[in-house]
Design brief:
The protein is an alpha/beta fold and 409 residues long. It contains 14 helices and 22 strands. The protein has a four-stranded mixed beta sheet. Helix 10 links the parallel strand 17 and strand 18. The model has no long low-confidence stretch (mean pLDDT 95). Bound molecules: ligand EPZ. The site of ligand EPZ has 25 residues, from helix 1, helix 5, helix 6 and helix 12.
């Protein structure tokens, strides 16, 4: 059914997670606002609490953090295995305390997800790194500023080393750095704490170490992937969507794709209005590091392509196994063939509801979109994947007129 209305976009999960870790860099208080109410944020706050950060949630999902009483320099397996971003405590702990022990995150559904670049950077800054029984133990008398060239673009790798470099002795230059807006949001927060950072958002970031950082009051940026997910859903099902509080420039790659699909996008200041097309053109996508098309939007756009008027291709260049939603979409009647890291989609006139299974966070978002497109009822299993990255998804879609309800967790 067509969806009409406004969605309130939450704070960005992938900005909130590294920003929460900045609390480890100072004994002063951090007040972080506009946190999304998500499982991953709860997991990160639990991990920081385990390490000894004082965490005080305020009424509207803001949080007061203080790293004054950090007393455990360890991120245990039972927490890290549920959220790979836990590796982001490594850089700040070593920078401030000279030591950290973090469980190796292990792979996940979408790929191996190694952390060799994180390790390479910390070693370049003078840290000793040991891997033993699934744990990374990193120690350094004091981190020394270094020139680090990443072998590939890594978002949390860039963030981990930026966090570490803020308290290192001397200047660190990160080359081939990730340019994602969430990296810039972290840099802005750290600068607010007294860090000396320039170049965030470009491929070369310079961090001049300081002796100490202070507290800050900082609001996390909007979640561009959540916004993009609702935009894609409305474009695919027809209707109209209003989003407020966006920086439209940072979702330009998605806006141009939805426009070529036939969507009408109008933006004014921080508001964006999307009108769905009467017929959907197929759109070819190739994921790439920012400012390229985001891999976190790949499954959602594939769902839209399943009913577009023609053939489209979706190429995934970031992760080696991020097509698990394809089999599930085919259960709904989609016509998709995988050729290496490229999926070829033949648009069909309609999808038919069925039972499907979520496999990872963004694949499950793609399945919800497909369920909204399909005739009849679709049930999506293992929606704990969804809750990691989407706040109140059934409520927000429900407000747009979707018939969606949570059966169980
Ligand atoms: C971040 O993951 C995001 N997570 C992911 O979002 C996102 O998909 C990904 O960046 C790419 O944009 C957070 O920010 C918390 P990478 P990250 O390091 O940092 C390889 C979501 O849905 N690599 O940029 O872990 C890696 O295997 C999540 O919210 C190495 O080989 O991703 C991958 O193929 C899913 N060695 C590629 O680089 C390393 O040391 C990009 O990974 C690090 C990464």
């Amino acid at each position: 059914m067509k969806l009409f209305g406004e969605v309130e976009v939450s704070g960005a999960k992938n900005a909130a997670l590294p920003i929460l870790c900045a609390s480890l860099l100072t004994p002063d208080k951090l007040r972080i606002r506009n946190l999304p109410h998500l499982q991953d944020v709860t997991t990160m706050l639990t991990l920081l609490g385990h390490i000894g950060v004082d965490v005080e949630l305020d009424e509207k999902m803001g949080v007061m953090l203080s790293g004054a009483n950090v007393n455990r320099l360890q991120a245990p397996y039972e927490l890290v295995r549920t959220m790979r971003a836990s590796v982001l405590v490594l850089g700040p702990l070593v920078a401030r305390f000279g030591r950290a022990q973090v469980s190796l995150p292990g792979g996940c559904a979408i790929g191996q997800r190694p952390v060799d670049q994180h390790i390479k950077g910390l070693e370049a800054m003078g840290a000793e790194v040991e891997i033993d029984q699934g744990y990374l133990t990193v120690s350094a008398h004091r981190l020394i500023g270094a020139e680090i060239v990443f072998d590939l673009v890594t978002v949390t790798g860039t963030e981990n080393l930026m966090l570490a470099a803020t308290l290192a002795d001397g200047v660190t230059v990160l080359r081939n750095a990730a340019m994602e807006p969430e990296v810039v949001d972290l840099a802005n927060c750290l600068v607010g704490m007294g860090a000396k950072i320039s170049g965030a958002g470009s491929e070369t970031i310079k961090i001049e170490g300081v002796s100490a950082l202070k507290g800050v009051d900082y609001a996390v940026m909007f979640d561009r992937i959540e916004a993009g997910t609702y935009m894609t859903a409305v474009a695919a099902t027809g209707g109209e969507l209003l989003l407020k509080g966006l920086d439209v420039n940072i979702i330009s790659s998605l806006v141009s794709k939805l426009s070529s699909a036939g969507g009408e996008v109008h933006s004014e200041g921080e508001d964006l209005l999307l009108r769905a097309p009467c017929r959907l053109n197929p759109i070819d996508i190739k994921t790439a590091p920012y400012p390229g098309f985001p891999t976190d939007m790949q499954a959602q756009l594939m769902a839209l392509n399943t009913i577009a008027d023609g053939t489209s291709t979706v190429s995934e260049t970031i992760f080696e196994n991020r097509f698990m939603h394809v089999q599930e979409l085919k259960r709904l009647g989609a016509k998709i063939e995988i050729q290496g890291n490229m999926a070829v989609i033949q648009g069909v006139s309609e999808l038919a509801g069925a039972e499907v299974m979520a496999t990872d966070l963004r694949a499950s978002a793609g399945l919800v979109i497909a369920g909204l497109i399909a005739s009849g009822e679709t049930s999506v299993g293992r929606i704990y994947h969804l809750d990691r990255g989407y706040e109140r998804i059934e409520e927000k879609f429900g407000r747009l007129g979707a018939k969606i309800r949570r059966l169980s967790n």
